[in-house]
Every structure is written in structure tokens, then in C-alpha cells.
Amino acid sequence: MGQFEIFKKYESDQWFERNKELLKPMEDIVIQLLDLYDLLDKNSKVLEVGASNGYRLAKLHEKYGCICSAVEPSKKAVKDGIDKFPFIKFYQITAEEMDFHDEFDLVIVNSVLHWIDRKNLFKAVTNIDKALKMGGYLVIGDFQLPFFVKNPYHHIKDEVYTYKQPYKNIFLISGSYLELASICYNHDTKSFKNIDFKNFFCVSLLKKQELYLLQDKVL
């Protein structure tokens, strides 16, 4: 069984069971960054990929009244989210499986990309890009080291890895995204102290817009 199948069939549920007591509406770096740029209002359509039970979306809805959708593979997380936050529309699928087209003003992908099997990474990135409207915003939070590292996933005995790399660069190199901000912190302590390569976590805010210049304008 491959990495995609493992997370799809059972590990997403097991992750939710291990962490469900912590998944309550609260402020975090993602929300603080969105607040700083004042991006949301009641008409904003927001998608979170890997939303668990929708706890972060629930906080955004509470603050701004925005229209919220959640993509989450865990059946248990989706059931919990539907029970607790009926104003969120849930899709029990993965980033690789979703198929939205120019629907959202904001897409949040936090602590997701490092789980994805490398053979599916570009498919997931393509689906994320397709979901976001031109002029919309993308938040990527992950272990965005400036180099490439993989670690065995210690909760599973099978050969499964998590992957660290500068995920924002996949979008930036396309010429269709402008980086507005990145906030890096210690993932273990959730503080801005004692940051090193083992705990380095970075939340990046990108705007989707064409960056290409016409050749006759620059040459």
C-alpha cells in the first residue's frame, strides 16, 4: 500500500484521534497573517485543504463571516466538523482528488504538503492553483527548509516519509504568484525563539497574479 492509500484509508483518521482535543477555534499564525493584511470579509470564499474538523475555518467565520469550505480525507474529522460547525461545507477528499475551478478568494494549505507522496505532489499543487481565483490569495504553512529533506514517519511501520522543502517556490517559479510575506517560527514551541533546521516552520502569503512583462516593454 502506497503513501497516498495509507493516509486516505486510515492514517488521517488516526491523526485526528491523536490530536482532536487540540482542534478548537483559536488564533494562530495563519489567522494573524490574514488579519495583518486585512484580506477577508463576509463575501470572501475560503477553502482550507487539509482542514481537519474545520477549527481554523470556524474562527475565520466567527471573525469575518466568510463563506467556508473544507477539504479533508479523514471521515472522523469531517463528521466532527459537520456536528460542530454546520456552516462549513465539507468535502471528504484529498488535495490530489479535489477539482475546483476559480472558485475561491483564499486557499489555505497548512501542514499538508509535507505528507503528500512525491509522485502526487504536482497533481496536488495543480489542483490548489486551479481552485484559486486570479487575484486571490494562497497561504502555505509547512516545514519550508531552503533545501530538501525527508524523514521516516514514526507513527507508521510501513515505508512512509514526510518531506521538507521550500513549497512556496513551486508556486513562485510559475510566474503567477507574488510573495507578500513569510513568517517563520519554532514549530515545536510555537515561538519565535531558538529556531533551527529541525523545528523550522514557515507560513507564506502569496497573491495570484500574472508577473510576466511584455518583451517589447523591457528589451
Largest sheet: 7 strands, mixed
Task: Report the oligomer.
Answer: single chain
* Count of spatially separate domains: 1
Helix content: 25-40%
- Low-confidence segments, given as residue ranges, are none
Q: What radius of gyration results from the CA coordinates?
A: 17 Å
Number of strands: 9
CATH topology: Rossmann fold
Classified by CATH, the class is Alpha Beta
Q: What would you say the CATH architecture is?
A: 3-Layer(aba) Sandwich
Q: First CA to last CA: what distance? A: 53 Å
Shape label: globular
Mean pLDDT: 94
Strand content: 25-35%
Strand order of the largest sheet: 3-2-1-4-5-9-8
Q: What pattern of helices and strands is seen along the backbone?
A: HHEHEHEEHEEEHEEH
Tally of helical segments? 7
Write out the CATH superfamily name: Vaccinia Virus protein VP39
